[in-house]
Amino acid sequence: MSNFIKKIDKKPSFEKENYFKGYSFLKENRQMDLDYIIMNYGHDFYQIDAVSTHIYYILDGQGEANIAGERYTLETGLVVEIPKDTEWAFKGNLKMLEISIPKFNPETCKYTKKNDL
Question: Residue 61 — left, alpha, or beta (φ > 0 → left; ψ -120 to 50 → alpha)?
Fold first, then answer.
């Protein structure tokens, strides 16, 4: 490949067994993340990211989200924007693209409670 065209690796870049796996496209980029995520179940806990905004484009599937205490149905074709300092969790069987700006840092993400979706 080249600096301009990226291909998904065969091995996931990150994975939570039985929940989701993800493939990072922009590993060298220091400003943002672009990930392809296959979600088999959902998040195990709600989370709040103190720094990054997360933008998801739902490529395929259905699920649910709880964002800032409100429940939403997720389906193919939707875009979901989760601003920093917002509590949220997903559940479902989804294929998504995720953009994190700035780049996701697990040290700025707090897990708050068990996912009840």
Answer: left
Examine residue 9 and state whether it is found in any structural domain, yes or no.
no
Tell me whether residue 5 is in a domain.
no
Number of domains in the chain: 1
Q: What is the value of pTM for the model shown?
A: 0.89
Task: List the domain range (segments joined by +) for residue 81.
Answer: 18-114
pLDDT, averaged per 10 consecutive residues of the chain (117 residues), comes to 76 79 83 92 94 98 98 98 98 96 94 95
Query: CATH number, domain at 85?
Result: 2.60.120.10
